[in-house]
Amino acid sequence: MKSTGMTRPLDNLGRIVIPKEMRASMGIAIGDPLEIFVDKDSGMLAFRQYIGVACKMCGALDNLAYFKDSFICYDCVQDLKEGNISPKIDKITKVEKQKRRIYQKPEVMLDKLRKIIEEHPTYTQKQYGDILGVSQCRVSQLKRKLREQ
C-alpha cells in the first residue's frame, strides 16, 4: 500500500470521511457498501468496495457454484470445460455498470417503493431492489421507514 498523505480525524461517534478524490478514483459511490480489513500486527486498516457473493472470474451475481473457497458462475464453468480461458472483459463491464447506483434522496426512494409495493404487493425485497436499483438491505431500511410514517 502507498501513503496518500491525506489525514482525516475521527468524529465523536468514531466515524471517518473518505475523501471524495479517493472515492472517485476507486469507483466508490455514495451508499456503496465497503468491506473492512484489519492487520493487527502492522496496525493497518483497509477498505475496499464490497461486491458480495459474485463469480471470482467475471463478477457475475447469478447462477453461482461454490468451488474451492470461491464462487464461479455457470458460464465460467462452461468456458473452463470448453478450454476457453480468456478473460471476459465484456461481462466484467456489464457487471460494473449494473453495480453502479445513482444516489437518490430517501424521500424520493420512499415514494418509488410505496408505488411499487402498491402495484406488486407479492414481490420479494430482491425484486423491489432490482426495480429500484438498490440492495435488499436498503429496501428493508426503506420499508421500515414506510412503516414508521
Description:
The protein has helices spanning 20-26, 74-82, 89-99, 106-119, 125-132, 136-148, and strands at residues 34-39, 44-49, 64-67, 70-73. With 149 residues, it is an alpha+beta fold. Among the domains are: 20-49, no CATH class; 106-148, Arc Repressor Mutant, subunit A. A two-stranded antiparallel sheet has the order 1-2. A two-stranded antiparallel sheet has the order 3-4. It starts with 19 loop residues before the first helix and ends with a helix. The relative contact order is 0.09.
How many extended strands? 4
Q: Average pLDDT across residues?
A: 80
Instruction: Give the neighbour order of strands across the main sheet.
Output: 1-2
Largest sheet: 2 strands, antiparallel
Q: Uncertain spans, ≥5 residues at pLDDT below 50? A: 88-98
The helix fraction, in percent, is 40-55%
CATH architecture of the domain at 106-148: Orthogonal Bundle
**Per CATH, what is the topology of the domain at 106-148?**
Arc Repressor Mutant, subunit A
Q: What is the CATH level 1 assignment of the domain at 106-148? A: Mainly Alpha
Number of helices: 6
Q: What structural class do helix, strand and pairing data support?
A: alpha+beta
Strand content: 5-15%
Order of helices and strands: HEEEEHHHHH
Shape: flat
Cα end-to-end separation? 46 Å
* Cα-atom radius of gyration: 19 Å
